[in-house]
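Appendix B. Raw example, untouched.
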Amino acid sequence: PIEHLGSFFVTANLAEGEDTATPTSAEIVDVTDDGATAVYTDGVAGRVGFVDISDPTNPQPLGAIEVGDPTSAAVAGEYLLVSNNTSEDFVNTSGELLVFDLASRGLLTTLALSGQPDAVAVAPSGAYAAIAIENERDEDLEDADGNAGLIPQAPAGTLDIVDLAGDPSEWAVRSADLTGLAETAPDDPEPEFVDINEADQAVVTMQENNHIAVVDLASGDVVSHFSAGTVDLDGIDLSEEEVGPQENGFIEFVESREGIRREPDAVKWIDDDSFATANEGDYEDADGEEGGSRGFTIFNVDGTVEYDSGTGFEYAVASVGHYPEGRSGNKGAEPEGLAVGTIDGTDYLFVASERGNIVAAYDLSGETPQLAALLPTGMGPEGLVVTEGGTLVVTAEVDGFDEDPDDQFGVRSLITLYGAGDGSSAYPQLMSASAGDMGAPIP
């Protein structure tokens, strides 16, 4: 079975003498090629941190470097690529790609990006890096009708591509145009996440646009693109009654919604022809309808849906007491992060519930994904990666000290590690049975 191996509190990477109450956060994570070191972004403290995970049962601090406003990080052989947001505001956007030597942690070069960066990915071939330039919208900006946060909002986003040949001082940035593709705000694509397959093709999610594009990195051409589509969900909880001491109300999977936009966040290739999306949702349209299908989808590169989890992911989360009732009205279990990797000879898809503080592991060896494990995390699991040796690394970004001084709580940002085990640390101890025609779990 897959089970918890070890945990690392991000505060362990604070500098000597630094106040332990300093807010920290582990957001996006990658690992070195040998699997011995995890590298994570800490946007709260403006740093990139390093953790020795050579023994996943006993992770050790390796310190951090000051960056600014890191949004993502990816290992490229002997180099570390960090996207840094330098935007003045939502209109005057800018960013840079910082290239560090992993061994010395020295800054080698800085590449100007097209705008405000989000995710960074490195091709398995090592030939390319791709950066999602989101140029995110101002969610408080009102239009003439008083609607806030609607797109389009200039400037448009894009996909930046870096050819990684030669010395980093010789690298240059070029862009792939993603305008004119989506039905929603075609002139304002907002790329959210990117991943690259063995064929040097990047898959890019445009969350608010509810659209997906596949880009050939050699040419920069869009080779396919399609809407992420919609789903109909029966047997979900859409009500937040605000009763009880935490005002969380009742969990009742008895309501329905039709035509929910998937609006994917994270995306990961499963093979060169298919990829999975975590359908978090992040946009409320002019009619007040919110996206986010509360599960995950496996797409073919031609846009065909090969599998959709429906209510399965949300029910799994609820069956072990992790369902976030306070999110029932919009995103439910809120899948956000993904990883694909091999543990003990089995290929898995890992799906993180951002507000449920849990990761679901799905066995990919059959015709359809099969739930294999549920793994508890810190608060707000954000980044996931699997080492070549079969260790799943999960960063949880929420720090209870990154709050108003009068509203702090003791939970700190955490990195958790999982792998093949003997069952002695199996989770959970209790799971609820199903009831009713929908097969929903008893909350």
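End of appendix B.
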